[in-house]
Each structure stands twice: as C-alpha cells, then as structure tokens.
C-alpha cells in the first residue's frame, strides 16, 4: 500500500513536472559523483573546500548586489540592465576615496581620484588593505554606497521617471542605453586597463587545514563576509521593522492599488533606489577589495549572474536574492569539479534557465519583498 | 437598420458553411472541478447546452462563471470532470484546438488586437487559411492561390462587417474603438471562425442600451440560423428576458437550471442571488 | 491624414524612395567627408564600400530582429549568439581539410563548398533557435530576453573553451579554435561566386577599368565594393522575403500573437507553432548575416560576439521603428552610417586637420591643463582620441532619447497591412465608392 502510494505519487510528479524530476535526478547524481570522487581521492577535499569558500565569497557579492536589482524589478516592474554598471560606478567612487585617503601626500590628487588611471599610481604602492589602511577602506565603502545612491537617483530622475507609466520592456530597453552610456563613460574617465587596487601580498591570512590540504582565508575574505552579512541583516531589519517594508510589499503586489490606498508611491520608489543602490555600490567595493583588481566592465560581467540569482530566488524577494546569489556563486565555482573551468559561468546560466523553465517564480517566488 | 440586417443576413455572409448539424446537446459539462491554491472556484458543475438555444449562465460575482468558461475553452485544465463537445471529449485540450472544433469564445473585457485594423482582426478569424503556412505565403507560384483565397475572404469579411453595421470602422485601428464597438468586433470576429457554439463572456458589459439592443437582435438572428449560444452575464433581468434556458451558479456550484420561469421561482436562487443582490 | 485613391502603389514607391534617399544621403555624407579628408579615388571608393557593407549588414540584422520583435513580439537579445553559430558552422563546414593546403591554420574543416557552409550555418542557427524556443517561448518577454542573452554568452564561452578547440568529425580534425579563433582559409567567397558564374573575364575587365583611376592593387578596392553591392542584393532579398511573410495570413497571426497571444489561441491559431517558425526563420537569417559579415574577414575570434553587438542591432531597430520592414532598413542604415562608422570618420577628419598623435593617454593629463590653466586643447584631443568609447556613450544616449521622444521610430507609427491583397471592398464594375477605397488603402500605415 505504502509503496504503491509512493509510486503513484512519484508517477504523478513525473508527469506533471518532468523537467523538475530531471533536475532533481541530475542534482542527486552529481552529489553522489562528488562524494564518490572525494572518497576515492579523485578530487581532493581541500580543493572542494577552496571552491566552496570561493563560491561563498562570490555568492555574497552577487546576493548583495542582487537585493537592489530584485527590489527595483518588482517595485518598478522592469529588469534594470544598468544595475551592473551602478555596481562598477559605486566601486570606482569608493576606490577613488580609498586611494585619496591612503595616498594623500604620496601621489598627486588627480591620479588618486582617478584610481591610478593610465598607470599613474598603484594600490600596492599605497599599501592599501583592510588591516594596513582600515580607515581608507571604511571611507571607501561608505563612499561607494553613497555614490551609487546619488547616481541611481539622478538616473531615475532624468531617465526612468519620465517613463514611469511605460511597459517594462520599454524601460528595459532604456536601461540598456543607460548601461552603455555609463560603462563607456567610466572607461573614458578611468581608462580601459585592469588595475591592481590592494597590496595583496601584505594582507594577512590564515591557513585552515582541511583533510588533505588547507583552505586559505584572508583578511579581505573576512571583510567581505562581515560587510555582506551585516548589510543583509540591516536590510532585513529595516524592511521588517518599518512601514517602508510594508509599503514596498504592497507596491510590488499592485502598484495602482498601492497608489489608491494612499501609499506615497514616489517616495517608496526613491527609498527602493536608495537601499538597492547603496547595497550594490557596497557590493562593488568589497568585490574589488576581495579580488584586488578592478576595471570598467566588472559590473557588466557580473550582471547576468546577478540576474540569475534574482530569478532563482524569485523576483522581489530579498532573501531569494541572497540565497540565489549563494547558489549561483557556488554553482559557478563548484562546476569546475565536473566541467572545464571555462564553462563555470555557463553552468550558472544553465541553472538560471532551468529555474525559469521549471519554476519561473523562483525558490521564494510568490512572496514579495522581505 | 434592422431590415438591412435581415437582408444581409440572408445572403449567407457569415461563417463559411454556417453551423454544422449537431447533436441535440452539442456541449455537455460533467462534474467539473477546479481549485486555485486551495480555494475551490468550481465545484462539480454539470450542465448541458441544447442546440440552437440561447443559454444563460448567471450568478453573483465569484460564483465561478468565468472559471467555468475558462475550463470549457481550455484556458485552464480542470482538476476533475469532463467537457464533451459534439460527442467528443475535449477536456484539457489546448484552446486553439477547441476553437477549431467549433466551440469559440469571446472575452469578458473585449480583447481586440489593438495594433491591428478592424479588417486585419477580422481576416485573422477564418480557419484553415492556406496562407498561414509560411512557405505557401512566400514561395513564388504558390502565392497567387493564397491571394485568391484572401480576396474571397475579404468579401466575406465585408459582408459580416455590414451585418454588424461596423463596416465604416473597417480601416480603423481596433485599439481606437469604443467599448461597445469592440464588443461588436469581437462577436463578428468570433463568427468568422465558423463556430457551431459561441461562448460569450459578458457581451453586454459596458455597452450602451442602443448598442445592447442591436447586439441582442443580432444574436437572436444568428440563433435562428442555427447557432448555439452560451452567455455569461450577471444582469439577471437580461438573461431572464432573452434566454430559453438558464443555469444559475453560486459558490462554484450549479444552484439550479431550467427555464427562466422555473429559475425565478426557485427559492434557493431567490435567497442566494436575488435576495442578496437586489 | 488625407488620401487619394491608388495610394497602395505610391506607398510602395515611397518606401523605395525612403531607402534610396537614405543611401544617397549616406553616400553624399561620406564622399563629402572623404573629399574634406583629401582622400584620393581609392580612399573615396573604399570609404563608400565600407559604409555600404555596414549599412547592409545592419539593415539585414534589423530586418531579422523586426520579424522577432516587431512582428511576433519575441524579445530576443541573443542576436549575436545566432550570428556566431552561423559563421562558426560555416567555417567548420567550408574550411579546407587539415593539412590539405599550405595554410597555417591549427584546425581544419570539412572542405565542402562555401555555399554548403552558408546553408549549414543558417540551419545551425535555426536549430539553436529551436532549442531555445521549445522551452522558452512561453516565458514572459523579459524572461525570454534574459534566457536569450544568457544563451548567447554560453555560445561565446563554448567558442572560447579549450574543450572544443579541436575535435574529430567525420574522420576530419576540425574545431572551434578556442580563444585564438579560426583562420578562414577557404577561397575568397567573392572569387568563388565570380568563378561559379563564369564571370572571371568580366571581373578582370572591371578591375582593369578601376585600375585606370586607382593605381595600386585595384583588385582589393573592387572586391570590397562589389561585396558591398552584393550585400545590398541580400538586403533586397531579406526585405522581399520578410515583406511577403509579413503581408500574409502567416504574418497576420504573428501580429495577433504580438498583440494578444490568448486571443490568437481562442481564434484557433496554434500560437506555439507560429512562434517557433517565426523565431527559427529570424535566427536562420541572423546566422546568414553572421556568415556574410565575417566570411570575408580572414579570421574570427569568439570575443567579437559579445552582447554589445546585439544591442547595436536593437538600437538600429528602434531608430527605424519596430514593426516596419522599411523602417528596419532605414534604421540599420542610419545606425551604421552615423553611429557605427560616423564617429571614426569624424576622428579621421579631426586627425587630418590637427595632429592628435600627441593626445594625452589618460583622463588625468587630459583634464589637468583644463582645470589648471584653462587650456582645453589636451582634453579635446583626448576626447577625439577616445571616440571608440564615446561613440558607445553616444549610442546609449541616443537609445535613451529615442525611448523618451520617439519610441515609434523614424517613420512614426506605421505598419504594413498583414494581408496578401488590399483589404478594400471589391468594387468590380462599380465606381461609386472611390472614397472608401482610398481610406482602405491608407489604413495599414496610420
């Protein structure tokens, strides 16, 4: 009886959601494969450990940047293709501040403000690091958030607000224009070269032994972890404890209704941009701190992964964006165990496409912001 | 005006071969059930629509009328129950296949194809157009046949526009029509698919009394030519006045059905519907 | 809009006039710029040939995208992926067998004729279209957008990957060449065409004729020019095909799907089938453009096929106005001439007048004199020197402004009527209704 029931339920599941069953089966097979390889020593435990740690770091950045994208997607109703370039813009502003504080008196102000454009000054030269120059890093982080907010509000005022009533597609296309303009303006001002931003050799780290090797955890890893989780908790508290969160939920459910019921929609929109942009600017900053290099299209390259995370988690859900970010980060990192590393990003996209097909509302779908 | 209608109606302008000779009860619904996220929208609906009648489906808002419509026309798949059309089980079939079988619907909020002209809207409707195959439309040598077919359709469409007295709107973009004109366009367009049974979802909502009168005249004229109609309405008086057969839904169930007189005397109806609303 | 009868014919003429006027304008502009730059005959011919090439490829791409978005409402932002699949497949099929010639190529192909490769390229692009379409066409427009752009990136990663750098196929060593790309060491497509048509003699005569004005290597100039003209013939072919597809019962269903898919379904149309057909046809055409664009380039590398190229096509389509084939051609032309090639010509123009070789290498040295001594020259030089970045900024701004001011495109809101015949009342033998006939003819392009 029990078996028959399980069987029939299984069959119903298979017929109703065949793709889902295939996905689940694939996940099980991959996990078993990984466990087998670990047991037989085909894959070193420490390598998997390093990949997991790396994926976690990337995932936190993607999740942090994804919160803003997810919020504007649900409240303004469009996929903002300029979001990645908000991340980069914030990062450049933040790093200009860090360079300025860390290098004042040691290089001319212009070179510092341009984050060493044209190879005029290097981060390593200035000895930048969270331990060596903590104040410069903190100031940079704050500046990154603030600059992204200013940028997002300015762009909204000039570009998006006049199109408020238009379709999501019209706004999406417009945002592509914004992305183009922003990214190449950044290149115009800061130059095309990828530059080193930190004194990577001087950043303290610890080796955590793990079975057959070790996982290296550096001070910048810890900084990323602390900043990202701190900001995520902060947003959680903000949206849970204030009226703003409620208003946002109402607006993402039904904009017209929200307006009719007296929610100041434009103020909610502004708040959405402020929170989303601050987080994405901070994400851009800590990403550069962690990687130790930066260039003008970092954010654009991150954008599709952020979209993947947001869709995976369910548009409008900040927890979804965080979880989606971690899943995407870990996928892109761990995929290297099974497939060539050049397909790591492709693997993350495949995960996103599969989610869109199986459950377009995402993991946390149906639940709106917070 | 009405004599014009009569005259044109007899020219055989509408659907290519008129309604088919159907069984006495072309549409039959048995024990239809549908739940949305734990809420039962339709709970065991069973009814039939007789050939050549004007059958009304009424009930207060949220009674499950529109869901029933969507279940019958394939927009939603029922959780249980069966829909039979012309002796064939069509439960859960794709909407376009159901439409091709001759069971065609209109929408509650008129859904004209706004970026297309009225003419284009109408030309879309006829079934089995050979030019709908891409290769026949583009291949030199085959296109003349498509053109001939289209020329014939154009005539048929103009006649149908005449019948509905909207020929002066033929070249307008459908998005620019008034609410009532859209309703007319939808009905005219549905007719051109050459249906046997028409499901009209609140065809009179938002239509001014003059136009409502005209629509009713046209529906009656068509019924006399053998078309079968199932109407969803919540204007109780209108249904009682116009329909031979009335089905009353309430909270997802069929409360009662029968002639207007029978329904009117049913205490449950009076309590659930008339009592509540009037 | 006041009209007179017989407008149908005149609209067709007007469309041709628009296109010809656009071409004439572009040529006049480029010739004027060339003369200002002091180009000789060779330079003038060359600049016209190059701009013709880009006008043609962007017109074709915009036409193909118009089928997806303008007609069917499919939001495809993976255009570049289909182009890449087209040219890479073509290369795989038509490259000579490894080791057969004196080529320095690392991997070979199947050694089949060029036209087989072109057809294979189109088929592969259509097939990829099918693979994307089958699951994804039911998705919302913005989701389809994200799926298609992700797909185009997956294509690029695949081309970049070492895994497929070289592999065996039908006993031949072929491959995608990885990050270093592929050398297109097949016969020049133009020479192959001329040879097939048996026109070598006439072509040599043409080269000789041009040789009287262009002293050195006239062949290169003639090749480029003729190839450009050949592409214009392809544009005409695309236009003809898509106009016929659009002005037909098939195109009518596509339009209905764009407007309201559920209504099309309720009227008995199998919308999924129509969407798949439309998507595959558009993808095949994009694959063909990929082939036509990159086939004469000598070599291809994966990083050419970045999403940026897709957005170029979108800007072209939006300039011209989605929904209109004529608009697509105009948009493609205007984009190619003014936004894609124009800024580079402007740079050359300035370069000719002022020596910009000593322009500052970065923003700092460029802006410092401006802020310090109020000397704007270094900044202006840097600006001109950075025209490649700034032209992308300009494109972004143009896109934003278009979406604000003129989302319906150059020609305004206009669409070709989706039918093979005029939708007017037949007035055979009657002449009492010229009025209604005229309004009818006008209806399709309001």
Protein model, in words:
The complex is a heterotrimer of chains A (370), B (278) and C (446). With 370 residues, chain A is mainly α. Chain A has helices at 2-16, 18-40, 45-76, 83-103, 109-113, 123-126, 134-160, 168-190, 219-241, 243-253, 255-260, 265-291, 298-313, 318-334, 344-358; strands at 195-196, 205-210, 213-218, 293-294. In chain A, a hairpin with a 2-residue loop joins strand 2 (205-210) and strand 3 (213-218). In chain A, helix 4 (83-103) runs antiparallel to helix 7 (134-160) and helix 13 packs across helix 14. The longest helix of chain A is centred in the first third of the chain and has 32 residues, at 45-76. Residues 1-13 of chain B have low confidence and may be disordered. With 278 residues, chain B is α/β, with parallel strands linked by helices. The radius of gyration of chain B is 19 Å and the shape is globular. In chain B, a hairpin with a 2-residue loop joins strand 9 (245-250) and strand 10 (253-258). With 446 residues, chain C is mainly alpha-helical. Chain C has a domain at 41-306. Chain C has 18 helices and four strands. Chain C has helices spanning 7-36, 41-71, 79-94, 114-136, 141-160, 189-196, 200-211, 218-246, 249-259, 261-266, 271-294, 307-320, 325-340, 342-353, 363-372, 377-385, 387-405, 434-442; strands spanning 167-169, 172-174, 182-183, 299-300. Chain C has a two-stranded antiparallel sheet. A two-stranded antiparallel sheet of chain C has the order 3-4. In chain C, strand 1 (167-169) and strand 2 (172-174) form a beta hairpin. In chain C, helix 3 packs antiparallel against helix 4 (114-136). The model of chain C is unreliable at 1-5 and 428-446 (pLDDT under 50). Chains in contact: A-C, B-C. Chains A and C meet through helix 8, helix 13 and helix 15 of A and helix 5, helix 12, helix 15 and helix 17 of C.
């Amino acid at each position: 009886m029990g078996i028959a029931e399980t069987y029939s339920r299984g069959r119903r599941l298979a017929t109703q959601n065949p793709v889902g069953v295939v996905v689940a089966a694939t996940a099980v097979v991959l996990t078993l494969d990984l466990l087998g390889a670990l047991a037989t020593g085909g894959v070193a435990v420490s390598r998997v450990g390093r990949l997991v740690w790396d994926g976690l770091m990337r995932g936190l950045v993607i999740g942090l940047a994804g919160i803003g994208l997810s919020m504007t997607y649900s409240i303004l109703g469009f996929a903002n293709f300029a979001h990645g370039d908000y991340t980069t813009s914030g990062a450049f502003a933040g790093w200009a501040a860090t360079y300025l504080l860390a290098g004042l008196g040691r290089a001319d102000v212009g070179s510092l403000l341009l984050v060493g454009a044209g190879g005029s000054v290097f981060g390593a030269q200035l000895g930048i690091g969270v331990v060596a120059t903590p104040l410069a890093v903190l100031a940079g982080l704050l500046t990154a958030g603030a600059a992204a907010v200013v940028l997002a509000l300015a762009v909204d005022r000039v570009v998006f607000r006049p199109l408020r009533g238009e379709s999501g597609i019209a706004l999406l296309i417009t945002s592509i224009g914004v992305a183009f303009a922003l990214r190449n303006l950044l290149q115009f001002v800061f130059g095309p070269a990828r530059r080193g931003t930190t004194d990577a050799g001087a950043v303290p780290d610890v080796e955590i032994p793990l079975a057959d090797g070790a996982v290296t955890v550096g001070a910048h890893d810890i900084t990323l972890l602390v900043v990202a989780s701190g900001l995520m908790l902060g947003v959680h508290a903000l949206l849970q404890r204030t009226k703003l969160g409620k208003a946002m939920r109402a607006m993402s459910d039904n904009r017209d209704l929200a307006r009719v019921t007296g929610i100041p929609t434009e103020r909610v929109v502004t708040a959405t941009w402020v929170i989303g942009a601050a987080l994405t600017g901070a994400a851009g900053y800590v990403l550069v701190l962690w990687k130790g290099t930066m260039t003008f299209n970092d954010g654009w390259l991150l954008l599709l992964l952020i979209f993947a995370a947001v869709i995976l988690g369910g548009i409008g859900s900040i927890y979804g964006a965080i979880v989606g970010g971690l899943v995407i980060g870990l996928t892109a990192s761990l995929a290297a165990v099974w497939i060539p590393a050049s397909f790591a990003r492709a693997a993350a996209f495949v995960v996103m496409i599969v989610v869109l097909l199986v459950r377009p509302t995402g993991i946390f779908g149906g639940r709106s912001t917070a | 005006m009405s004599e014009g209608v009569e005259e044109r109606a007899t020219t055989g302008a509408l659907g290519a071969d008129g309604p088919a000779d159907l069984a006495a009860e072309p549409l039959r619904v048995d024990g239809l059930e549908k739940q949305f996220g734990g809420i039962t929208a339709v709970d065991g609906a069973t009814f039939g629509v007789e050939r050549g009648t004007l059958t009304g489906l009424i009930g207060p808002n949220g009674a499950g009328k529109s869901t029933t419509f969507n279940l019958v026309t394939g927009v939603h798949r029922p959780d249980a129950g069966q829909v039979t059309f012309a002796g064939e089980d069509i439960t859960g079939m794709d909407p376009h296949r159901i439409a091709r079988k001759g069971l065609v619907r209109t929408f509650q909020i008129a859904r004209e194809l706004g970026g297309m002209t009225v003419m284009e809207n109408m030309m879309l409707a006829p079934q089995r157009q050979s030019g709908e195959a891409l290769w026949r439309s583009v291949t030199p040598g085959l296109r003349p046949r498509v053109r001939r077919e289209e020329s014939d359709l154009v005539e048929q469409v103009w006649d149908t526009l005449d019948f509905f007295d909207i020929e002066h709107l033929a070249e307008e973009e459908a998005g620019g029509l008034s609410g009532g004109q859209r309703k007319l366009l939808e009905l005219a367009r549905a007719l051109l698919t050459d249906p046997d049974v028409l499901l009209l979802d609140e065809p009179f909502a938002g239509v001014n009394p003059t136009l409502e009168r005209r629509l009713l005249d046209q529906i009656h004229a068509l019924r006399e030519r053998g078309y079968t109609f199932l109407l969803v309405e919540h204007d109780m008086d209108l249904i009682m006045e116009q329909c031979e057969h009335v089905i009353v839904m309430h909270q997802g169930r069929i409360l009662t059905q029968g002639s207007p007189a029978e329904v009117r005397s049913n205490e449950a109806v009076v309590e659930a519907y008339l009592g509540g609303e009037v | 809009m006041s009209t007179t009868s017989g407008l149908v014919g005149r609209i067709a003429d007007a469309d041709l006039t628009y296109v010809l006027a656009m071409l004439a304008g572009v040529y006049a502009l480029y010739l004027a710029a060339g003369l200002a730059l002091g180009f000789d005959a060779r330079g003038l011919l060359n600049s016209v040939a190059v701009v013709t090439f880009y006008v043609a490829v962007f017109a074709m791409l915009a036409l193909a995208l118009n089928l997806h978005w303008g007609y069917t409402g499919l939001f495809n932002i993976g255009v570049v992926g289909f182009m890449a699949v087209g040219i890479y497949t073509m290369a795989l099929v038509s490259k000579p067998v490894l080791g057969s010639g004196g080529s320095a190529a690392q991997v070979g192909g199947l050694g089949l004729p060029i036209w087989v490769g072109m057809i294979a390229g189109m088929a592969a692009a259509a097939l990829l279209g099918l693979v994307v379409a089958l699951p994804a066409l039911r998705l919302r427009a913005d989701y389809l957008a994200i799926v298609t752009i992700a797909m185009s990136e997956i294509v690029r990663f695949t081309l970049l990957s070492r895994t497929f750098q070289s592999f065996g196929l039908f006993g031949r060593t072929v491959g995608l060449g990885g990050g270093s790309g592929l050398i297109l060491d097949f016969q020049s497509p133009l020479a192959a065409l001329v040879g097939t048509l048996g026109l070598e003699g006439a072509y040599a005569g043409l080269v000789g004729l041009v040789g009287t004005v262009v002293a050195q290597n006239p062949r290169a100039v003639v090749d480029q020019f003729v190839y450009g003209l050949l592409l214009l013939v392809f544009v005409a072919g695309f236009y003809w095909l898509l106009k016929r597809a659009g002005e037909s019962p098939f195109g009518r269903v596509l339009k209905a799907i764009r407007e309201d898919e559920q209504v099309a379904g309720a009227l008995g149309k199998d919308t999924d089938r129509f969407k798949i057909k439309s998507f595959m046809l558009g993808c095949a055409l994009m694959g063909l453009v990929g082939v036509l664009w990159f086939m004469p380039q000598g070599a291809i590398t994966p990083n050419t096929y970045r999403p940026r190229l897709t957005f170029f096509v979108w800007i072209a389509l939006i300039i011209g106005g989605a929904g209109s084939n004529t608009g697509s051609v105009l948009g493609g032309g205007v984009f190619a001439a003014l936004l894609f090639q124009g800024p580079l010509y402007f740079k050359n123009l300035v370069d000719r007048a002022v020596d910009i070789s000593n322009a500052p290498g970065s923003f700092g040295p460029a802006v410092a004199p401006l802020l310090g001594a109020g000397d704007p020259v270094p900044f202006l030089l840097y600006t001109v020197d950075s025209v490649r970045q700034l032209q992308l900024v300009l494109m972004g701004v143009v896109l934003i402004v278009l979406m604000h001011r003129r989302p319906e495109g150059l020609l305004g809101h206009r669409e070709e009527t989706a039918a093979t015949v005029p939708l007017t009342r037949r007035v055979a033998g009657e002449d009492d209704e010229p009025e209604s006939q005229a309004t009818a003819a006008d209806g399709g392009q309001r």
